[in-house]
Amino acid sequence: MTYFRPELADIPAYVAGRNPDDPDVIKVSSNEMPFPTLPGVAAAVSGRIGQLNKYPDMGNALLLEAIAAYHETSVANVVVGNGSTALIEKFLTAVCTPGSEVVMPWRSFEAYPIAIKVAGGRAVPTPLRADGKPDLGAMLDAITDKTRAILVCTPNNPTSAALTHDELHRFMRSVPSEIPVLIDEAYVDFVVMDDPVRGIELAREFLNAVTLRTFSKAYGLAGIRVGYALGVDDVVAGLGKVATPFGVNMLAQSAAVAALQERPAVDQRVATIVKERDKLVGALRALEWDGPEPQGNFVWFGLGSDSERFARFCAEEKIVVRTFADEGVRVTVAEPDASLRLVRAYKKFRA
Ligand SMILES: Cc1ncc(COP(=O)(O)O)c(C=O)c1O
């Protein structure tokens, strides 16, 4: 007997990265930053610790102003949530009716099919291109009169391949304007390529484009849960209406404002990761790794049925990676020691 809607029974369980107990083990399975909390953020959070008897600002005023100023836009175009995952869930819940279809790339962020199901919709997965990018042509072909939303992930989790702005712009021109497109740019800060996607520009140009950002990745705030969406004011107002009241807690609001003020330090940390990624890619390519050119803070090993075997070599090197059974292994770029261990594991695997 269950109280839940029957179609929720087969929701795939979300597999979170394990936090290791052994101090020698490095966890590179959740695309987190390897650095400790930024000093300004730690100070801002500490300053609030004595006030937890109060509710947070329900209107998120300071945070909205800080994000709007950072992106040179108006607060009317910004909505914040308890992580960008919460915004995806809320958006889909607000637009789906029974039988609604949501087109998404697959394999992609694991939370998508779950959020779609919970919203009462039906996920329409479209296989990735051979280069690991979402196949925008296939996504256009998958649109029907039941399509209520489209999810685009770039750089795509877990393949780390990113679309160009031109590709996504052409796609947006072809999508009927009554279908909203959520452009998930969780890893935007790590993109170093020609013609990178500029989601903010798309959200300004197309009424149906909404870009999603998070403080969990480049800003290193995964533990405190803040994300935001940028879009036209009526989309933002709609999302604001369905937001969980007081959904972004007091510490999270202060932390995110402080993190924006520390943007130069964030940029430095991102540059460190990008440099490490380049080094790692060089070492892996020398071992004939032929994964997609990574644009996120993670690399993809599309090893198919060999994935579990490679993950075991990684475990021997005391690195916890994220395995997608029979598809591949995703590894977060972290400290140089993690890269060394990964390269060693890959060498042994190849041998
Ligand atoms: C593509 C993508 N979007 C969103 C998120 C979640 O971000 P948040 O921590 O803001 O919920 C992740 C986290 O791994 C992700 O990979």
Quick rundown:
By secondary structure, this protein is an alpha/beta fold. Helix content is 38%, strand content 15%. The strands form 3 sheets. The protein has a 7-stranded mixed β-sheet with strand order 2-8-7-6-5-3-4, sandwiched between helices. A 3-stranded antiparallel β-sheet has the order 9-12-11, covered by helices on one side.
Give an overview in words.
The structure is a single chain. This protein is an alpha/beta fold. The chain has 2 domains: 17-33 and 264-350, Alpha-Beta Complex (Aspartate Aminotransferase, domain 1); 39-261, Type I PLP-dependent aspartate aminotransferase-like (Major domain) (Aspartate Aminotransferase, domain 2), CATH 3.40.640.10. 38% of the residues lie in helices and 15% in strands. It is built from 12 helices and 12 strands. The strands form 3 sheets. Strands 2-8-7-6-5-3-4 form a 7-stranded mixed β-sheet, with helices on both faces. A 3-stranded antiparallel β-sheet has the order 9-12-11, covered by helices on one side. The longest helix has 24 residues, at 263-286. The model has no long low-confidence stretch (mean pLDDT 96). Bound molecules: pyridoxal-5'-phosphate. Residues 31, 83-85, 109, 153, 157, 184, 186, 214, 216, 222, 227 line the site of pyridoxal-5'-phosphate.
CATH architecture of the largest domain: 3-Layer(aba) Sandwich
Please identify the top-level CATH class of the largest domain.
Answer: Alpha Beta
Please give the order of strands in the largest beta sheet. 2-8-7-6-5-3-4
The kinds of small molecule bound in this structure are:
pyridoxal-5'-phosphate
Q: What would you call the quaternary organization?
A: single chain
Strand content is 15-25%
Cα gyration radius (Å): 20 Å
Q: How many domains is the backbone divided into?
A: 2
Molecular shape: globular
